[in-house]
Amino acid sequence: MRVLTADDWLRAWEHSQTLPPPLRPCALLAPLMEDGQAAAERLPLGRRDSQLLALHGALFGSRLDATTHCPSCGERLELSLDCHALRLDAPALDESTLSVEWQGRSFRYRLPDSRDLAALTQAGDVEQARTLLLRRCVDGEMPEAPPAELQALLAQAMAEADPQAATELSLDCPACARQWDELFDIGVYLDEALGHWAERLLDQVHLLAQAYGWSEAHILALSPARRARYLARVLA
Ligand SMILES: [Zn+2]
């Protein structure tokens, strides 16, 4: 596979900003996949997020800083996470074996992907979203209003087959000792991180173009180390 340049990542990030939020993380994986955006959108969500965690490690290192607030007292928590430690082992994926048994019937399903998430934005509430997701992902006839027991069985089976789809953090508040679990969304996080990186890079292009009269393509083609040295001279 060819080595991706700063220009490639800028383009990937730019493209991501033109997409609806559920599809944005796929634009970041697209340059790494043979079939590009379409293949990234078809990855089961947990597989997608596992690759996004690995991509964060490759682009920015394994440490990942985030902030959140205690749901009880509002205390601000600074989190220092490790994207390799957040990656969960997933069972080998054999699409043909994905099914649950309920009341003597067998329901085959596939794992939700980013296109399913994008479709759920049409739903009016959580209940509608849940039903819509099952209609999209479960083969054959689903009851009009799927019983809670069947919904729970399918949700559990999907979670076990694709554990990274919900990356949960166990948090403790140092101020009030409240303990809670919070979902961590690497897609949103990496999209933002790449956005900050893109802004910093464009600042550098701006300064070097002004100082030396070089083109954007020329500046982006410099190695990061060389770019930093010229920048140090401009700012000295
Ligand atoms: Zn608290």
Give the SSE map:
Layout: H1 6-16, H2 24-29, H3 36-41, H4 45-60, E1 63-69, E2 76-82, E3 99-102, E4 105-108, H5 114-120, H6 126-137, H7 148-161, E5 167-172, E6 179-184, H8 186-212, H9 216-221, H10 224-235
Helix pairs in contact: 1-8, 5-6, 8-10
Descriptive account of the structure:
This is Phage baseplate protein. The protein is of the alpha+beta class and 236 residues long. It folds into 2 domains: 136 residues, no CATH class; 67 residues, no CATH class. Helices cover 50% and strands 14% of the residues. The strands form 3 sheets. A two-stranded antiparallel sheet has the order 1-2. A hairpin with a 6-residue loop joins strand 5 and strand 6. Helix 1 crosses helix 8. The longest helix has 27 residues. It is globular, with a radius of gyration of 22 Å. The relative contact order is 0.15. The structure holds zinc ion. Zinc ion (ZN) binds next to loops.
